[in-house]
């Protein structure tokens, strides 16, 4: 029997497709949703198991960072800004939804790279390599591995599971520059959180690496929650270009 069909049927009874009346058995769509769900579940379970298997961390997101990050959700991006970010020039009826879906993945990837770049810098490790769409994590690391090799094996790429879009390194790099210019608080939040918890005076061991990765998770989740608002269809359609302050004064 076709494996995709079996997976689709299983998921259909758990979560019926939103458009079931029009298309009750969209095999590719439903199977892909199920695959993404299982990927997120698997990664979350293994991350939790890693935390439960050791002493809890004392590392916390410092006071004030959460409030600074909250400013992201109070902002918005116009459709034109979204099109520029996605580099999407195909004007058709599906462009808005397509661009917002793509930018959701793109902003997550950029947020991830910024967080890992700052974390590696604080720990004294080499910066992240070119973007890869692989989300492999090594959960069993040899005892004789160096501390940086241990970190490389445990770095949780694609925390949200399998990305829907295959991104290129140049696209992610461009998105990182966009966030640094439009929302510098993203990088600042990571920097403040890392430096608040780690002064670099102690020798780095595996527990410190794990604790810092847990801290990365906490900061990433907070930022991702806010940047996700930026890709809301309603928020984008309601967003108006910022008016020049001189123009405002001239009208008063």
From TrEMBL:
Signal peptide positions on this chain: 1-20
Keywords: Signal
Protein name as annotated: Uncharacterized protein
Naturally occurring in which organism (per UniProt): Caenorhabditis latens
